[in-house]
Design a protein that fits this description.
Order of helices and strands: EEHEEHEEHHHEEEEEHHEEE
Largest sheet: 7 strands, mixed
Distance between the termini: 29 Å
Radius of gyration: 18 Å
Number of helices: 7
Strand order of the largest sheet: 1-2-3-4-5-6-7
Helix content: 10-25%
Structural class: alpha/beta
Number of strands: 14
Strand content: 25-35%
């Protein structure tokens, strides 16, 4: 059994990770070109095909006067055998006590199909009609124009799932690093995609970084040059991971991501000239 929802505290905020799928899979595509013996040893598995816990998820942030949702998983689709909480992010949101029309802010790390799927309902209607939607302008340009390098499957998906939000006037493009709520700053980290952003969540002197797809596994922290096949610009992706690590050290932030199993939290520590991930228990929610 995999956890499909879990909450923790950051200062006066409550952060809840909401699963849209929890399962085990072969992770070799996230270590493209890396010696198999090196990355399998790092993950503690014997063979590249050995399954490793993985998931699609979003994050709910509450406690600063806004109800903020960060990424929306894969969206409506057929249920898959062996996958827990498959296509159930809306149910997990309800489990957290939030109705879709109570979401005030929707943020996107980027617009790959496993991060914007529930922007619309299974019928294609805008899922969060009261939300202000923040996406980096370079991300919108890449997928919605679209750019010649943008994969056709993802372009079609973005058109079906993000275009309705644009048509409804809900999208507010950001550039650079942008503070979008009292507690959350979008940090520009291009590389995986041209407009990829991570989210820096801060409250009462505490901090959290949600890494999007800059890191698909904590192993990417110790090995900045281990790449997913989906990293659009590998040099920029490596630099993005370095920037995230430095920011995490500077702010003493907890770190997790939408593909990390619920709840996988840690801090970044220096390790010689590089970095390492130090797992920590989830901080309790205050009150």
């Amino acid at each position: 059994m995999h956890r499909v929802i879990g909450s923790f505290g950051i200062g006066s905020l409550e952060v809840t990770q909401l699963s849209d799928a929890a399962f085990e899979r072969d992770l070799r595509i996230f270590f493209d070109g890396v010696d198999e013996a090196a990355w399998t040893a790092e993950l503690g598995i014997a063979r590249p095909e050995d399954p490793v816990p993985y998931g699609y998820s979003g994050f709910l942030v509450q406690g600063d006067g806004q109800t903020t949702l960060i990424d929306t998983g894969m969206g409506a689709r057929a249920r898959e055998p062996g996958v827990e909480s498959c296509a159930e992010l809306p149910e997990r949101l309800r489990d957290a006590g939030v109705a879709s029309d109570e979401v005030d802010v929707l943020l996107h790390s980027h617009l790959h199909l496993d991060h914007c799927g529930w922007d619309v309902t299974g019928e294609g209607a805008v899922a969060f009609p009261s939300a202000r939607v923040y996406v980096h302008e370079a991300e919108l340009d890449f997928w919605m124009t679209p750019h010649p390098r943008a994969p056709e499957r993802d372009v079609r998906f973005a058109d079906a799932h993000v275009r309705p939000l644009l048509d409804a006037g809900l999208v507010r493009p950001v550039r650079g690093d942008a503070r979008v709520t009292e507690s959350i700053t979008m940090i520009e980290t291009p590389g995986h995609t041209p407009g990829h952003c991570v989210q820096l969540v801060q409250s009462d002197g505490e901090a959290l970084i949600l890494v999007g797809d800059a890191m698909h596994h904590p192993a990417h922290i110790a090995h900045l040059d281990w790449h997913s096949i989906y990293d659009e610009d590998r040099e920029m992706a490596r630099e993005a991971r370095r920037r995230i690590c430095e920011l995490a050290i500077e702010t003493n932030a907890l770190l997790t991501g939408p593909h990390f199993p619920i709840l996988t939290l840690g801090r970044i520590r220096r390790d010689g000239s590089g970095y390492r991930f130090e797992p920590v228990d989830a901080p309790a929610v205050r009150g």
